[in-house]
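Subject: mismatched residue count in predicted assembly?

I count 251 residues in my input, but I want to confirm that the predicted structure covers every chain. Input:
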Amino acid sequence: MLEIKNLHARVAEEGTEILKGVDLTVQDGEVAAIMGPNGSGKSTLSYILSGRDDYEVTEGDILYNGESILEMDPAERAASGVFLAFQYPLEIPGVATMTFLKTAMNAQRKARGEAELMTPEFIRRVKASAAELKIDMEMLKRPLNVGFSGGEKKRAEILQMALLEPKLCVMDETDSGLDIDALKIVADGVNALRSAERSFLVITHYQRLLDYIVPDTVHVLYKGRIIKSGTKDLALQLENEGYAQIIGEAA
Ligand code: ADP
Ligand code: MG
Ligand code: MG
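Triage response: the counts match. Full output below for your records.
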């Protein structure tokens, strides 16, 4: 599904290198967790996967289903099935969440050469996914993310993910700002989307989320490099020992 090879990247206008040779392979159906202390480059990696143009790849490649996506813009990547759930979801005043969802779904369907979704079918899908994520339909009449609580924003991100049916789901610290009940709801929603054809990059600072979304692999990102990879036991080790031990070993 995804092969990141010796990826070096920097902030386009500023020039500081943030990713310094990331190597990572994610198989079809795999749930890979990326952990790491603040400032490691986790969000940067997620932005670069989604194609944000204020970051610049200076070396290496990103292969998605065997083909480089470096030349693809964010819309093309989304149309081909890459989805990013943001660490800090943007508020979009003046655009009702329902309108946003319908526009996004139909834009993606168009890019895939599929017919536009008619309103009754759209509503049916939104209701089903919203119920699963315990999202009140009233909330979806409000402008996207405006006045939503931290937990509601994260649930709205997962709702978008469920409706857009991506192949590669990148979730950047979806657990931050969630209380334990909301965390379980989000995890259930994500687990329901797991399949042999869909892969996940679950980015998190804490192991807690991984009690509910159990990953196949765990990778530690530190100062722009993967310094250790393992199974879910690595997340437990981090929980017990903190990052200092593993950083020390890597040095
Ligand atoms: P993480 O998500 O792991 O906390 P980030 O990817 O947000 O890490 O940041 C990695 C490093 O890159 C940090 O030192 C951060 O300050 C720097 N950085 C990220 N984006 C920018 C930017 N747009 N301009 C300047 N520095 C940035
Ligand atoms: Mg951070
Ligand atoms: Mg981050």
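Residues 2-92+168-250 form a domain with the Rossmann fold fold (CATH 3.40.50.300). Marking this ticket as 'not a bug'.
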